[in-house]
Amino acid sequence: MSCLLRNVVARGLRSLASAQAMEPSISKRLWQQSKREAMVCLYHPFVVSIAAGTLDLHSFQRFIAQDSFFLTAFAKAYGLAIERSDDREVKSEICKLQQAVYEELELHSSLMKAWNFDHTPPSPATCAYTDFLLAVAAGKKIECEKTKVPMLALAAMAPCMRLYAFLGQETRVFSRENHPYRDWISTYSSPGFETAATRLEQLLDSLSEAQETTAAEFQSMQSLYHRAIAYEVSFFDAQEVRGSNAFVPLLESVALKDRNFVLISDFDSTCTVSDSSPVLAELAMAVDPNVRRKWSSLSDEYFRDYSKLLEEVVLREYDYDAIKEALQVLSEFEKQGNAKIDASRVLQGIKIDDIKQAGQNMALQAGCASVLCRLSSKISCQILSVCWSRTFIEAAFSKENITNVPVHSNELENDGNFTTGSLIRRVETPIDKEETMFREILHAPDDKFVIFIGDSLTDLLALLRADIGIVLGTSSSLDRASKAFGVKIVPLFSGLVQRQQSSRSAWRKEEGVLYRASGWLEIEAFLAGN
């Protein structure tokens, strides 16, 4: 084991590039499985207030005092792991990590002295977290060989390091010269802290590899990792947020308590990982192989003409009416495309049961189903899509037991068993989406607060008309058109922090500004929190 570890550890950070091309390491898999909790922490009103610099100093002082108790326990946990290791190289690596914690504690101590802040007793949330860490490091949580304890201890400690590195990197852009919490942000966004977090993860991966971790042991590591990051969420929940009118979670915002929230989402490539039209075309090809040639010709013509159309977009200042007028040309193009599909009858003869099965097999974006399940019981959630088949969409959600989310889309005409090849065309264009949003979903919009989620140029008008328009992913056509039309797309977290800094009492719509989110888990954290 010693020789193997000497070889693995010596590679240090240089092994990262080659590891990324291979199967994700255990530490990366565990972190990816904790994406929801990471987003909950990033969008926690306490962290948002730190990033914005609006947090009351007393609240921050209390946080640092509680964090000092945690760091002390962290150092002790490293010490226990050192005692239980029988490998000299492993001991040396853990000692380096422990030393970094002592340096972090010195920073906390100097801050406390500068503030002349009396130490408060550890809170219940702090005690629960520190007791858990020390019990794991002492081998009291999970029965195992003594030599396996350091590996399990690192599994419980890794999420804290990775989480704080993540929070530091995400908040770094706000650390201006006169920011009240610049030192805190600089510490956790520094290359040194990222190196420490990476070293811990690499040591965890090395131990797992060297000790030939079993499936049961991986489950134990997984359980400890997830419990630890859950304690992190509880730790932030226990902090005071004084002197800051936080906007998050948005659905609980006091300033918006009299508004009726409505969440409207596109379907293709917003809820799903891919587009539905090729799937429906494949079903038609299975019925009649000759459809493949027709479909290829129609799709090639569509994408060629679509690209030419986008090239004709003229740069201008933001003007919603002008954008709508420009998209009228695109709308006519989309209608002509659907008319060709309709006339060609390429979608004729598909079994309705096959459409339902294909919908159920459609992969959804990570977090989409859980977010819609959670939010649809609290607010109105609806789907607005140019997809050809409402049956397909409803089937995709039915497998996740999402039955209370109305769908507004087109449909494939059928006789109850098979499609006729005709399209029942209801929502085909950007203008159709905007008009359907107001005519069929919002009705009297004055009391409603609308969040629209989309990913493509077809969504642009609806995104701009919503109180908050959220863009998922990176669509080259949407980005190009937005730039040409003077529409700004800013990261959702940055937009939130800037709102927090403005000291406004409520989230007010900003014309011509959209927000980009990394995925549904980020949207959930923004809207609903933990």
Automatic annotation (TrEMBL):
Annotated GO biological process: thiamine metabolic process
Pfam families: TENA_THI-4
Any single Gene Ontology cellular-component annotation: cytosol
Transmembrane segments: none
Residue intervals of the Thiaminase-2/PQQC domain: 42-239
Highest taxon, organism lineage: Eukaryota
Protein name, entry field: Thiaminase-2/PQQC domain-containing protein
Species this protein is from: Selaginella moellendorffii (Spikemoss)
